[in-house]
Amino acid sequence: MTPTATLPRSDRRLVFTSSQAARYLGVSLATIRRWTDAGHISCYRTPGGQRRFAREQLDVFVTSMHRSGRNEEHEYGGARELDVHDSAGAA
Fold first, then answer.
1. For 25-74, how does the pLDDT look when each residue is reduced to its tens digit (9 = 90+)?
2. Whole-angstrom Cα distance, residue 80 to residue 91?
3. Residue 15, domain CATH
4. Residue 24 included in any domain
5. For residues 29 and 87, which has the higher predicted lDDT (pLDDT)?
């Protein structure tokens, strides 16, 4: 993935920070980090270690989760969290 600084101005909106990706998916920042660490969502790491996400990749992730039926939404005081369970961890 190309770093944001080298993308044309019109394409910069297609790259999200972790916080922006969390808002885009409607989940917490911790969930984005957990999904990235588990390999559910790929991201680009800046030289400083910050994660960057392509909107297209986030859309592919959401589509694959809905298609596979492996998503569950939970409500916590008006906030929704989408949990992803990998088959190896399911009992």
1. 999 999 999 999 999 999 999 999 999 999 999 999 999 888 766 554 44
2. 24
3. 1.10.1660.10
4. yes
5. 29
Q: Which residue, chain included where needed, has tokens 């399911």?
A: 90
**Tokens 């596979």, residue?**
68
Question: How many domains does the chain divide into?
Answer: 1
Asked whether residue 6 is domain-assigned, the answer is no
> Sign of the CA dihedral 66, 71, 74, 79?
negative
Phi, psi of 40 (to 5 degrees): -75, -35
Question: What are residue 15's DSSP bridge partners?
Answer: 54
pTM exceeds 0.70 for this model: no
In a domain, 4, yes or no: no
